[in-house]
Amino acid sequence: MDKLKEANIDKNSSTGSVSGAIAPASQKKVLIVDDESVIRWSLKKFFDEEGFATTTASSGIKALKIIEEEDPEIVILDVHLPDHNGLALLKTIKETKPDITVIMVTGHADVRSSVEAMKMGALDYLEKPFDFDNLRKILSSFSIKAESSGGKKLSQKDDFIFSSEKMKEVLRIMERLATKSDVTVLVLGESGTGKNMLCKKLHELSPRNEMPFVEVGCVNIPDHLIESELFGHEKGSFTDAKNAKKGLIEMADGGTVFLDEIGDMPYQMQPKILSLIEEKKFRRIGGLKYIHADVRICTATNRNLQELVEAKKFRLDLFYRLNVATIEIPPLRERREDIHLLVNYFLGHYSDKYQCVTKSISPKAMNFLEEYAWPGNVRELKNLIEKTVLFAKGEAIDIIDIPQGAVTQKYDDEFTVSALKEKMDIEAPPGMSLKAMEEAFIKTALKLSEGNQRKAARLLEISRDTLRYRLKKLGIVSKEIED
Ligand SMILES: Nc1ncnc2c1ncn2[C@@H]1O[C@H](COP(=O)(O)OP(=O)(O)OP(=O)(O)O)[C@@H](O)[C@H]1O
Ligand SMILES: [Mg+2]
Question: CATH no. for residue 22?
Fold first, then answer.
């Protein structure tokens, strides 16, 4: 306690004490916000020794005042404060000073609010009691990050291609969760969004990366075999069990087990998965002794687990257990900025693979791809570009080279029509007659829909018959192009 006196920290936390020093310009400023004086003291000691200029605050109000006045680079923020919800304070900080790096302090097993905090922009979280080596690692990885820019680091490795803010956020959360090598992760997203890819990346970036990554497709293994595949069996435990066999969990010892399509896990197996996650132990079929499972469980599904719970196909307790460290990959149509990059990347990739001149793509064709709804997400885009590269005749890919079959029907969805509608903004010069105006509208709609009258009619919000009538009335010649 003498040390507490030396550090001149007010032990009466509810009054909201502040302690600090004026920092030389070169020193990074850290603000520690926690209502427990011992925590403030131990963190201050750590940061001081690491060469930071440290200030402490015991309440949210005091913290906001210091942030305003002193502009710290880093804030260490307790989730539970007497006068503030730490997450609400985090939100305020991120809204007002987004450049501040915030590291949350949470109680053990408070993973849910920690993940929530990371989604809200916190860099990481520290669990009480502190592991200062871990804190040192977080800080050093942060300084590496400060030099590199978000997703670039990953895309340079020729794997995850993205530029959208949404994907940067997804990858940032994945990178942080990767370091928490015991946290069970659930990855959600439509088919083809990159869930498998993300889980593999999570393993590669985790401290378990030297150990096995074992993938189990829960839909591919027949119900009656899944238990023996996962947990193994003892000799003689059933008719065909001539020898004892290790299951996949045992084979993954020290590494990561990826339970893909967890939504399809047979109902009767689900309690065993829950107990594996919670107790980190399991028994082989026919075995009496428990085996410790030193594995991280990573799961993914494109199904709606909540709906499966309501339909009594997925257990509520397992759902709650899994729905903690959740990463949701948005569909491609909600991050259209990525399309351009992905198209160019796969064009290069397949041009190399099939040893043809690297294909370029016309702006019109690119536009077409950027506006398409991509129900099959990145997988569909990748396959389409592969086909296009294989079949395109010239060096430059135009809209005509894109295998239309699958795309055109879907292209004509509501989204595309509404996207085109935005382009229907025609300026009417003063004195323009109503007839001329009507003609301009119709011609623009036909141009945008590339002569397809059905689409043009939808753009104009008139029936196809009315369009035909007007074309005739105005004397516009337009060849009927079918869908
Ligand atoms: N951001 C990306 N950058 C590059 N390739 C990607 C990206 N996202 C997905 N892919 C590629 O798209 C394909 C589908 O990805 P993946 O298998 O990971 O999807 P998924 O979400 O697991 O799909 P499903 O639900 O059908 O299992 C893979 O070939 C993958 O390499
Ligand atoms: Mg998958």
Answer: 3.40.50.2300
Q: Of 46-60, 137-151, 199-213, where does the model show the most confidence?
A: 199-213
Q: How many independent structural domains does the chain possess?
A: 4
Quick one: pLDDT band at residue 368, thresholds 50, 70, 90? confident
* 49 Cα distance to chain centroid: 36
Same domain, 186 and 323: yes
Cα of 354 vs centre of ligand 2, distance in Å, is 26
Its domain, for residue 117, covers 2-147
What is the spatial distance between Cα 28 and Cα 47, in angstroms, rounded to a whole number?
A: 10
How far is it, in rounded angstroms, from Cα 326 to Cα 299?
A: 9
Task: Give the model confidence (pLDDT) of 381-393 as tens digits.
Answer: 999 998 888 887 7
pLDDT > 70 fraction of the chain, expressed in percent and rounded: 81
Starting from the CA of residue 174, give the closest ligand.
1
| Cβ atoms 288, 148 nearer than 8 A | no
The backbone torsions φ and ψ at residue 312, rounded to the nearest 5 degrees and listed phi first, read: 60, 35
Which residues contact residue 111 at a Cβ distance below 8 angstroms, ignoring those fewer than 6 apart?
183, 324, 325
Confidence of residue 26 (pLDDT cuts 50, 70, 90): low
Q: Among 167, 380, 382, which is best to mutate for testing ligand 1, by the most ligand atoms less than 8 A from CB?
A: 382
Whether the Cβ atoms of residue 116 and residue 86 lie closer than 8 Å to each other:
no
**Is there a domain that residue 398 lies in?**
yes
- Distant-in-sequence, close-in-space partners of 247: CB < 8 Å, separation ≥ 6: 228, 229, 230, 231, 232, 233, 284
Ligand 2 centroid to residue 175 C-alpha, Å: 19
- Encoding tokens for residue 449? 């829909």
